[in-house]
């Protein structure tokens, strides 16, 4: 695993294998969300509902890559004042498909339904011999254009988002 941090509000995690990657990706995302003030620092209040949704979305998309595509190769988080885009790449060209309708009595098959319900939008695109599955969520209202720390930062550096 290697980490790349840039001055922009982008974080990339390069992944190898499938052991423990869901937890690694959640931890990586939690750290980014804390830095971007989507999550409070430890002990400073309850987490934002949107941030909890983001952690669940990361878990679902990464778990799908583990189960259906031999594991993810990277996780990319891109944050602006309006949205967060989550991108997970893997080596399979097969696009994700929602099972319709999944059997509620059988475990599994509900991940993309969760993604559909929580995401503003989602999709996949071919990348090299594999694909990138992307998910977008709206930024929490407190961090939008209303003058919060994120919007003040973006106003100073409008081309870095």
What is the H level of CATH, i.e. the homologous superfamily?
Histidine kinase-like ATPase, C-terminal domain
> SS-based structural class?
alpha+beta
Gyration radius from CA atoms, angstroms: 16 Å
Largest sheet: 6 strands, antiparallel
Succession of helices and strands: EEHHEEHEEH
What count of helical segments does DSSP give?
A: 4
CATH architecture: 2-Layer Sandwich
Strand content: 25-35%
Reading side by side through the largest sheet, how are the strands ordered? 1-2-3-4-6-5
Instruction: Calculate the terminal CA-CA distance, rounded to whole Å.
Output: 25 Å
Total beta strand runs: 6
- The chain-level mean pLDDT equals 80
Number of domains: 1
